[in-house]
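Please, why this fold?
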Amino acid sequence: MAQNIYILYDEQTEYVTNKVCENIFVDKKIYSPNSELTTEILKKISNECFTEYFYVIVTDKELCFSNFDFTYKPNEWDKKYVNIWNNDITVRLFNTDIVSENPSKFNDTELKAGNISIKSTMCKIYTYPIFDIIFLSFDEEYADENYNRLRSRFPRIKRIHNIRGILEAHKAAARLSDTDMFYVVDADAEIIPSFNFDYQPHSLDRKSVHVWHSRNPVNDLEYGYGGIKLFPTNLLRTYDGSPIDFTTTVSNSLKVLSEVASITKFNTDPFSAWRSAFRECVKLASKIIHNQDNTETEYRLSVWCTKGEDREFGDFTIMGANEGADFGRKNMNRPDLLGLINDFEWLAKRFSS
């Protein structure tokens, strides 16, 4: 028989607490500021608990207990200990009678002071959720090669191909996703070998858009342009705002991670190099990006417009950057015209003219 399970939560952790409760049966959710395990809570639990032991879970990240059924009971000589796993106090197992005798000996204050006898079993009893990875492609020269390379590392990857419109492609990806959040990988991205798509957001960040830095192969800039993104699925499915730079507006919160997770190899041919630079520099010059830092923006714009001519298709990159900067400045108050950067047919005609 499973022991009783209790989970503590506060305003910051309620979302992931509810996700854990979808994964396992929890006898009771208990509200506690800062999710603190207090003497009062321990007294209440031990008085009402009908099993020999009880578990307390305190977490700010979603947990999955796929291979643990909570029937574990320590040996008789270990019941005086608070049992944990893998030196991790996220999940603690208490003997009900011993806690009932003196609950003040087992609260978080005593834990932090090092006054509780703990026994750790060296194994992990939970995992973190695995988010979908969705690869977006349209007409990129090496899209198939990049997709197959990524699929060999991460077989769970899914693909959206040939959807017109950047926002429309992302919304199609959101509809395809079966997880609460999902990663988006652009077709021109070469993933750094050390990046494993295993990031776990804090409870407060589950509705944030996360963007990793990417390296620009022409001018060596490293920031969110072309970077891997982690989107909250439902927010993107229901988004009805501006399509121009929706990454920064689909959520009220944008979290930028400075780890370089990819190289954005957009410079595969003259048009791709020009188009990528034009689109990005329209955004930078028009100040359309939500909450952008003007000093940082002007620096990036300057680098796009001047650096990397000696790199492959660097001349077309610089050309596109300067034309995009000019277009963005002239039309910064014309969202109808700025929106043309997501019309690839219009971009092709402008490049050819």
Summary: Residues 266-353 form one domain.
